[in-house]
Amino acid sequence: MKKSFNHDLSTSNTFRMNVSCACYIEYDSVEELADFFSSGRQFDLPRPFLHIGGGSNLLFTKDFPGTVFHSGIRFVSPLEGGGQADASGAGEVMVEVGAGTRWDDFCGWCAERGLWGPENLSGIPGETGAAAVQNIGAYGTEFKDVVRKIRCFDVVTCSVKTFSRDECRYGYRDSIFKQAAKGRYIVTSAVFALSSGAGPQLGYGHVKDAVEKALSENRQESPTPELVRSVILGIRNSKLPDPAEMGNAGSFFKNPVVPKVFYDKVEHYAKSKYGQDYEVPHFDAGSGFIKIPAAWLIEQCGWKGYTEGNVGVYAKQPLVLVNRTGAATPDEIIALEKKISDSVMNLFGIGLNPEVEHI
Question: Please, what is the end-to-end C-alpha distance for the chain in angstroms?
């Protein structure tokens, strides 16, 4: 185990907040975790405890007074005898991935081998363990759609536990690891079901159009995981800032899911402003609820491209708040967050909830 005190976290969060933690620990195996917690050494460390991945979905609001843990468990390993025929008749391939593995590295590994599953999630920053906690999602696919099992270390019983996908209680950017089991289980690896013949998920119209364009340009008859991954990366890179160049945590707000009566008010506003033929972007969430893109709501309030001091709203995607100078403080980000939320509430009566976890 690697342990350091008064550890600088500025490179451990993609917002690039200049903060530190009282203690930082990185471990490389489940055995190290078991030895550490069973020996009682955790009682000598500053509290509270926080486990992070790549820090791509966090906003540190101040120096962290406790101990930050980080996984160094990195591997991608096919499982023997774990597959079966999928719906297309092609083989299902079961693969286990260490929690510390960069998520996009795994997506690339799959695409290179012609395996379908996480290609629509390509380019999402962070690590596999954090993806399991957050249930990341993009372009019609969520983490829960490809995962089958989550292996964890129980810090209370000092034992290993495996959760089925259903037991994880995955929801929109949510899981049991953010709710009832928060703090008790450390994700150590995830098992995925991939396919050599399932084909692409092209439910998002602009993704389908981009894939068809790429097929034409490459003179291919049918898409491959590598081609779809390349298209997704191109879309993301055209819309989202690289955290290495401009600090950010990706989508800052969740897309609100509201009763249809709220959507009807939004629709009335839009048609009054843009004409009766205008269609508000939305998705049917079932049971009389509608999901409205938070980016659209924020843009209607005039925030796209806004700058103030060291912070701003990304000019190409209003859902992304940025540390545009590299010198932003947590208070500056929080103040901008509140202004945006208040304006959306004032105009539409809809509350925005942050997707980014505030620490």
Answer: 24
Residue 277 has pLDDT above 70, yes or no: yes
Active-site residue flag, 355: yes
| CATH code for position 299 | 3.90.78.10
Range of the domain at 17: 2-71
Report CA torsion sign: 214, 219, 225, 230: negative
pTM, two decimals, is 0.90
Q: With 80 as the cut, is the pLDDT of residue 301 above it?
A: yes
From 16, 151, 173, 229, active-site residue: 173
**Residue 181 counted as domain residue:** yes
Tell me whether residue 212 is one of the annotated catalytic residues. no
How many structural domains comprise the chain?
Answer: 3
- In Å, what is the CA distance from 196 to each residue of 117, 307, 308? 9, 46, 48
Query: Looking at the domain assignment, is residue 318 inside a domain?
Result: yes
Residue 236 annotated in active site: no
**Percent of the chain's residues with pLDDT above 70:** 97
Average pLDDT over residues 264-286: 96
